[in-house]
Specification:
The structure is a single chain. The chain contains three helices and six strands; from the N terminus they run H-E-E-E-E-E-E-H-H. It is of the alpha+beta class. Strands 1, 2, 3, 4, 5 and 6 form a six-stranded antiparallel beta sheet that branches. A hairpin with a 2-residue loop joins strand 4 and strand 5. The longest helix is centred in the first third of the chain and has 21 residues.
């Protein structure tokens, strides 16, 4: 009887662990945030006139700057501009983010540089939410992803 019970408990435990590995535990969505997006825009890069552009293989992305979608959050809009070179993110700048009251300004003064740095480090929009800046982090991540999609770096 004890062996049967142990097998049942082990089986149930395996099912629970398996479910935890399959089911996402976080949706990374801002509750109550306006999910309106303004489309991303590719900004043409000027090429130096003294050096003609060299041909690149079709699979090799060109250098470009892309303005991500503007994401409206509970505390204000967030937008990210990304510069790429040869398929890598070389710069990511939050061009729009909440500047509201003193506390919002204080939080974003810490969060924005961390989000920009993590973008360059991870080379993707799969970045962590900054504690205390959940809405800004989610808006940044969504705008960044729209810019990467427009640059075909998704």
């Amino acid at each position: 009887m004890s062996t049967g019970r142990n097998i049942a408990v082990a089986g149930a435990s395996a099912l629970i662990v398996g479910a935890l590995l399959v089911v996402p535990t976080s949706t990374n969505r801002a509750v109550g945030a306006d999910r309106t997006l303004v489309p991303a825009v590719i900004i043409p890069q000027a090429t130096p006139s003294a050096v003609p552009p060299s041909p690149t293989p079709a699979a090799d992305p060109t250098s470009m700057t892309v303005q991500g979608a503007t994401v409206n959050t509970r505390y204000g809009p967030v937008s990210v501009r990304v510069q790429t070179n040869n398929g890598r993110i070389v710069d990511a700048v939050a061009t729009t983010y909440p500047h509201g009251g003193g506390r919002t300004r204080e939080i974003n003064a810490r969060a924005i540089p961390a989000l920009e740095s993590e973008t360059l480090s991870l080379q993707s929009a799969h970045i962590d939410t900054i504690s205390g800046a959940t809405y800004t982090s989610e808006g940044y991540r969504r705008s960044l992803q729209s810019a990467l999609d427009a640059a075909h770096l998704g």
